[in-house]
Amino acid sequence: MGSILTPLTSLGSYHLIAWGSLLGTELYQSFVMTKLCYIHLPRPQFTMLQKRVFPVYFNIQTGLVVATALTYPPGSVLGLAKNIPDVGLLGVIFGLSLLNKFVYGPRTSQAMVERAHQETRDGQRHTDDISKEMALLKRKFSSNHAMSIHLNLIVIIGTILYGLRLGSKIA
């Protein structure tokens, strides 16, 4: 029988915490907080909040993928390197998280802000009879936002699949 301190010194314990935090953060931010804020905040406040929240979310997501890889049992990244399916899943999760962090997240935020400024210049909401500039900004926002949403969804699916693989090793 192991020591009471064994869970505190086991790489596997920290790996489960890192993976669980990753999945929990993804699900909570994507399906709870964003939905609640969209429903309960006026659009300008929702826009400002999203502009501030999603860069932090993508930073946390990327960091937790790294933490999951670094705590891979046994042997951290060296142990991970021997398991090609796990390397592949965590690699896809990491790569798509980076795309959202550095490309599609910032583009979506910028387009959202530009659209709000264009509404002010046009003197009307983006849903009214819109100017040519607003139509371009809506298209820019929609394409970047759709890409960010899809990448995030693929990351969540990958995180769940990784968890299923992890769970099969425990049983």
From TrEMBL:
Q: Which residues cross the membrane?
A: 16-41, 53-72, 84-104, 146-164
The record ties this protein, via PANTHER family, to: LATE EMBRYOGENESIS ABUNDANT PLANTS LEA-RELATED (PTHR23241), LD23009P (PTHR23241:SF102)
Q: Which domain of life is it from?
A: Eukaryota
> Which UniProt keyword terms apply here?
Membrane, Transmembrane, Transmembrane helix
In Swiss-Prot or TrEMBL terms, this protein is called TMEM205-like domain-containing protein
Q: Upper taxonomic classification of the species? A: Eukaryota, Fungi, Dikarya, Ascomycota, Pezizomycotina
Q: TMEM205-like domain location, by residue?
A: 18-117
| Main location group | membrane
Its localization reads:
Membrane
